[in-house]
Amino acid sequence: PEYYARCAKAFDAMIGSKVYNKVFWGTDPRQYSIFAAQAIASGKGPLLEVAVGTAQATATLHVASARTTTLVDMSGPMLKLAGESIVTAAGGTLPDRITLECRDMLAPPGDRRYETILGLGLLHLVPDVTATVRELGRQLEDHGKLFLASLVRGSARSNAYLALLKAHGDIARIRSGTELFDEVRASGLGSVTLARRGAMAYVEISR
Q1: 134 — pLDDT class (breaks 50, 70, 90)
Q2: Backbone conformation region of residue 54, classed left if phi is above 0, alpha if psi is from -120 to 50, else beta
Q3: How far is Cα of residue 24 from the mean position of the Cα atoms in its chain?
Q4: CA angle 196, 75, 201 (to 5 degrees)
Q5: Residues linked to residue 50 through DSSP beta bridges, in sequence order
Q6: SS3 3
Q7: What is the pLDDT of residue 152?
Q8: Angle at 8 between CA 137 and CA 172, to 5 degrees
Q9: Residue 64: how many other CB atoms lie within 10 Å
Q10: Between vectors from CA 117 to CA 110 and to CA 115, what angle results, nearest 5°?
Q11: Under 8 Å CB-to-CB from 191, ≥6 apart: which residues?
Q12: Dist CA 159 CA 109 (whole Å)
């Protein structure tokens, strides 16, 4: 979280850049929003977005939704930008049904459970995907769903940039799509589907 706290505004601009996403990851920011929209539209009960960052891809979607929503990130500066994005999208006021919490995503206060858990650009940040998915699953309601995304091996350029990020300590592991699928499935949480767009993998887990 220290790295993202220092670079919150630069990171916000970077992840929203079509050029950056196309050149380095073979993706488009709209794909993140489409995946997030699928998660938000998957139910009507409480929703948790973890590692929300600046909510670049989800602020407008959360405002348009009627769901009770909790947004979590360990970086205060990132979460502040997320709140500002949502307030702007909502016309100047943070909706009462949306809360922002600066904390560990795996340590919820009380015994909260959610129908849907969303994590964009999350799994490449954790060293143990299986354990992380299993712990997130403890916060999931029966018949709930997780929507999680991760950078994975892709083109030669993507792989070189992943190696640079790993050497700098900005990501925890470099995985192929197959490795990611196997680690998620090993959590035993439920059925798993994985779709790839460039060097980004989108995982859906249904209990």
Answers
A1: very high
A2: alpha
A3: 19
A4: 5
A5: none
A6: helix
A7: 98
A8: 45
A9: 11
A10: 75
A11: 205, 206
A12: 38
pLDDT in tens, 52-61: 988 989 999 9
Question: pTM of the predicted model, to two decimals?
Answer: 0.92
C-alpha separations of 191 from 86, 152, 161 in Å: 32, 20, 31
* Per-position DSSP letters for 69-122, written without gaps between them: EEEEES-HHHHHHHHHHHHHHTTSS--TTEEEEES-TT--STT--EEEEEETT-
Instruction: Give the DSSP letter of residue 48.
Output: E
Residue 79 structure tokens: 């979460």
How would DSSP label each residue in 143-199? EEEEEEEEE---SHHHHHHHHHHHHTTS-S----HHHHHHHHHTT-SSEEEEEEETT
Pull the structure tokens for residue 129.
């995907």
Residue 201 scores a pLDDT above 50:
yes
pLDDT tens-digit readout, 21-57: 899 899 998 999 999 999 999 999 999 999 998 898 9
Residues 149/170, Cβ–Cβ less than 8 Å? no
Strand partners, 160: none
Residue closest to 123 by CA, chosen among 158, 147, 92, 143: 147
Residue identified by tokens 């602020």 is 59
The strand pair at 191-197 and 47-49 is best described as unpaired
With b meaning 16 or more CB within 10 Å and e meaning fewer, what string describes 41-62?
A: ebbeebbbbbbbbbbbbbbbbb
Q: Residue type for 132, please?
A: T
